[in-house]
Amino acid sequence: NYSSRKNANAILSTHHNIQKKNSERSLDSTKNTFFYVLSMFPYPSGDLHMGHVRVYTISDSIARYHHLTGKNVIHPMGWDAFGLPAENAAIDNDVSPNEWTKKNIQTMKSQLKTMLVDVDWEREISTCDPEFYKWTQYIFLQLWKSGLIYQKNASVNWDPVDMTVLANEQVDKNGNSWRSGAKVEKKKLKQWFLKISDFSEELLQDLDKLELWPENVKQMQRNWIGKSVGVEFDFSVKTLDKNLTLSVFTSRPDTIFGVSYIAISTEHYLVDKKYLPSDKAESIIDFSKSLSKNSDKNINSKIGIETGLFASHPLDPKKKIPVFIANYVLADYGSGAVMGVPAHDSRDFDFANANGITDFISDSGKSELFCEKGVLKKIPANDIFGGLSSDDAAKRILEICKISGLGRVKTQYKLKDWLVSRQRYWGTPIPFVYCSSCGPTPVAESDLPVKLPVDVSLSKRGGSILNSLEKWKNTKCPSCGNHAVRETDTMDTFVDSSWYYFRFLDNLNNKLPFDPVKINSLMPVDIYIGGIEHSILHLLYSRFITKALQTSSTLKYNSSVLNEVKKGLDNPLSIENTVEPFKRLLTQGMVHGITFKDPETERYLKPNELEYTNESEIPWIKSSKKKPLISYEKMSKSKFNGVDPRSVIAEYGADVARLYILFKAPPQDVLEYDTKSIVGMQRWVAKLFRIVSMVEIKFKPIKDYKILSDRDQWTAQQKETYLLTQKSIKLATDVFENSFTFNTLIASLITLSNNISLLPTVTNPHLDLHISETYALNSLLVMLSPIAPSVSEELFERLHLNNNTYLKTIFAYSWPKLDKSGLVSDKAVCVVQINGKVKFKLEMYSVLFNNETELKEIVLNSELAQRYFIDKNTGKHVPIKKTIIVSKR
Ligand code: ANZ
Ligand code: ZN
After folding, report:
1. Domain Aminoacyl-tRNA synthetase class Ia, which positions (predicted)?
2. What are 737-763's pLDDT values in tens digits?
3. In a domain, 144, yes or no
C-alpha cells in the first residue's frame, strides 16, 4: 500500500527513531579506525536552502557509508554564527543578534533533522557561544605570544554605508563593497593582523601534498599566494639634503635599460614634505591623497603626478629618471614602486601615454609595445648586453648589480597578512585592553572569555555599538591595575571558522581549546565537503592556523595550563601529525533553479505571472500569452526561482529528495533543479516498495554465505543477477571511496532493481527466491541505505522482521563485500555463420553451449537473426537445412 505522496511523513513517523538509533553510535572503543567526515558548517540564516540540502546529503551519505564499513565515524555539525548579516537582520527585525541567531539555529536544526541528516549532535558547537569563543580568544592570545599577531596602522578598505573595514576580497572588481554595494574608500586605522605571510612558502609547498584535493582549488590557492621570483634594484634619489634609496621590484630585470620613469605608490615614504621640492610639495601631497581615496582596484585609467624628484639608474648613473606618484602602483606589493618600462609592459605603456612620457625605446623607434622576451638591442648605455637574449642578459645584469650592491634576487608573494579587525558588534571580542601606561595589553587567560554583551539593541545600521557601551568598555589594566579601555573591534568570522574542526573533536574540553592528543589521533579531516566559493580564503586560513598552532612555541611551552597537561606526557602539545587539516576536499556545485524572463524586457517573472497548461513544465506569460525566456540560474529571491527544501521534503519525502539531488548531477557540477526528474526518483522508490511487497512473505534471509560460492549449478539468470550485484558493489564502493559520482551508483542500483523485478521468482508468488536473488535484494537495500536511509530501513525491516533477523536497524549490518570472482562473467561469444560466411555475433552464457536445442532457439529468436532468417518478400521464416554447432572455437 505504498503511497508515494504520503511516503515522507509516514516513513518519517514510523522511523523517527532512525535518528536516535544512529546517534547513539558515539565512539565505539572496539573499533579502531576513525573516519572524520566534515561539511562546512552553515551560517544560521534561518532557512535551509537547496545548497544546504545538497552539501549535507553528500556528507551524510558518505558518513553513513563509512559507518556501514565498520568505522568509528565522526560527523559533526555546528553553526558559523557570528557575522554581519545577523547584525543587519537583527536591526531590520528589531531583535538582538543573539536572539535572532539562537532562534535560527533551532529552526535550521529541525530542518536538518527532516532531511534525515544523521550528525553527532553531542558535538554541536556554535561560534557565538562563549564556550566556543573563549577558545578563539585563547588561541588569539597564544598566537600573539608567539609573535604571529601584530597591530599596524594601515590603509584599509572603508565601506561608508556599513561603516566598517572590508577585507580585500570583500571589494569587487569595480571597487564596490560586496555587501552594501557602496564605493569603497581608503582610510587609515590601527588594525590587528595575523602573520600569514610568514607561512607563504609552506602554504605553497604543502599544496603538493594534498593529492586528494581538486587541482583547480590548488591552483587558485597558488595564484592567491602568488609567488614571484624577480630582482630588486636600488635607484638613488637626490632630495633637498640627502641621497635616498628607491628600491623597485621587477620580474623583468632584462628591461632595466628601457626604464623611462619610476612610479611610486601614494603610500611611499618619499611622498612626504621632507623630501618633495618645497614649492610643489603641498599640491603633490593633496593630489596623492585624492588618488588614494579611490580604491586601487578599479584602475582603468592610469593617473599620476610628477614629484619633481629624479632617480639615477644603477647601471647608467648619468641618466636622470623622473619619479611619478601613480594610482596603479600597489602600496603593499614589492617595495611599492615600479620601474616603468613602457616599451615592454602594457600598464607602463598606458601610463606613459596618459602622462606625456615619450622617451622610450622600442624596436621600430616608434612607441609600440613588445611584451615577450627577446634579444636586447645595442644602445650606448648597454653596450655589453646588446645582442644577448633576455634570459642571458638578466643573469649578467644581476651579476653586475650584485657586485655594486644595487641589485639582488628577491622572492615576492602576493599573499598579504590577514587583517582580522572588524568594527562590528556581532563577533568574537578581541581580548585586549588599552592602558595609558602599558599600551595594548592582553586580557589574562584566567579572565577569558571577554564576553560580548548580548542584551543590546542596535538602533542604527553601521559602526560598532561596543564603542558606546561605557560600562562594558571601561575596565582595569591586567598589568598595572589602572583604568583601561577594552578593544571594541571584533574578529573577522574567518578566525572562528579557521579552527572549529579541532573543537568538534573535543567540544566539551574546559581546560583547553582541544586536547592535542585527541587531535593527533583524529586529525586530519578525512573528507571535507563544501562550496567552491570557500576555495581560497577559508581553506587558506584554516591551513595557516593549523600550521601556526604546530609551530607556535607558546602553545607548546609557555602556557601554564598547557604545561600542566604536559607533565604527564612526552610531548602532549604537539599536533605535529597534522600538517594539513583536510586530507580530501570535495567541492560541490551550486543548485540552479528554472528561471523565467519576459522576452521583451528580460524582467524576471513571478510565479503568479505565469500560467501552466497540462502540468507541463513550460508555462505561458498570463498577460501577453507569450512564451517566457527560460534559463537555469543561481536561486535567489530577486529571480523568483528559489525552491524551498521544506516543500520538496513535504511532497516527496526526504529520501526521494536526497536520491534526486545525488542522481541529478555529480557533486562538483551545477545542479539544475527540475520537478520532472524528481518524479522519476519517486517512481523508482515506489518500484522498490512493489518488489518488497511481492516477496516479503516468502523472504528467507541467507544464513550461510558459503552457498554463494557454489555457483556452477546456477542458471544463467541466477548468474546474471549475481553478476549485476557484484558490479553494483564494486561501483558503489568505488563511488563512496573515490569518485563520488553518486549518479552512477544510483543508476547501477536501478539496473539491479530492474533485473530483480523481472525475475520469475519475484513475480510468481508460488516460486521461492533463489539465494542469488535474496542476496541481491539484501545488498541492494544496504547499498541504498546511505543515500535513502528511511526507505531502505523500512524495506529492510519488512524483509527481516518475520525472520528474527532484524537487528533494529539496517545500519547495524555491514556493507556488502565484493566477490571479485563474481565479477567474471562466464559469457562467451557465439559466432553465427550462414553458408560459411560470418553474419553476426551473440554474447551468451557458456553453459548454453552444452545444450544444442536451447542454443539454437536463442540464436534463431535473437533480434539479429531476424534479418537473415525471414524472407523479405513473404515475411516467412526461411527453412534451415542443416545446423552445425562447433563449440570452443
Ligand atoms: C619592470 C617590468 C618590465 C615589469 C616588463 C614587467 C614587465 P609579478 O610577476 O606579478 O610579481 N610591479 C612591481 N611592484 C609593483 C607594485 N607595487 N604595484 C604594481 N606593479 C608592480 O609582477 C611583477 C611586476 O609588476 C614587476 O616587473 C613590476 O613591473 C610590477 F617588461 O618591472 B615589472
Ligand atoms: Zn596598565
Report:
1. 415-590, 633-665
2. 999 999 999 999 999 999 999 999 999
3. yes
